[in-house]
Amino acid sequence: MEARHLRYALALAEHEHFGRAAGALGIAQPPLSKQIADLEREVGARLFDRTRRGVFPTAAGTAFLARARRALDEIAAASVDAARAARGETGRLRLGFIASALLEPLPDVLCRFGRERPDVQLELHEMATSCSTSVLVAGDLDVAITLGPPRGVGVERLVSVPIGHDHLIAVVSSSHPYAGQPSVGVEQLRQQPLIVASGEDEPAVITGLRALLGEDSPALSGATVARDVHTIIGLAACGMGVGLGPSRMLSAPRPGTWFCEVTPRTPLPDLVLSFAAQDRSPALNAFLDVIRKNCPDVGIALDHRLGARGGAHRGGMR
Question: Where is each HTH lysR-type domain found (predicted)?
Fold first, then answer.
């Protein structure tokens, strides 16, 4: 039994005449009569009464037609659903990210993606860079945003592209002696209680601080360790010391705080977006398209990694 048999039966029931039904279907009458007879043999029941007044469904035919109509509706819906999934309008996207990515650029990207792809199920997982890489390689994430490029087993199968550049800055309360200063130097930092992110969540910040202040710096060894940059800003606002973190903190101004540049300028590793080179998920392709729209420079780098001809639909080398 094929979908066309269902359409033939419904057309015959609507027109109550083989000739009129055949005309509506765009076929000749003899093939229609044969197809209906074949259908009745397959079902094992007479579906239509042939009378001088016309052709009418039997009780069995009425029951069959009700199911046939629903089946054709489901087939049509299945085609629509398949087309939407192929365009990345439905499906699932699993995103792992470090907390500071919520300062920039994730808010604009996620808002735009939600507007353009409201029926894609977003699964968001905040996790440290060291964790997200292994989860991504294992196939349990579709895309990850990390501080610095992924490292470890399997990273050669990933496509990675920088999506943000950072350097070290300081944040203090508005009542702190450094408030109002455009910058603070290394010697000033050594004389203040410091607030830093944990090495697990922002390892590059710790590495940069050790290079800046010295591997065995008392100021660093006695620093307050915060879970993420949001906590650093909050503790600095409470007057607990000088918070040190990535320049993305500038996108999250808070009343009662002041941001200073740190001199000498200390670059931090880039914020990096990574995904499996062989991933053909339409939802991932749709997400990358939003990245391109929001971050044109990133889009150029993406196309370079993936190959100009393949775009988001081709794998590439890191």
Answer: 1-58
Q: Does residue 281 share a domain with residue 160? A: yes
Q: Please give the residue range of the domain that contains residue 68.
A: 3-86
Does 60 map to a domain? yes
- In a shared domain, residues 154 and 283: yes
Domains in the chain, number: 3
Q: Provide the whole-model pTM.
A: 0.72
Residue type, 151: R
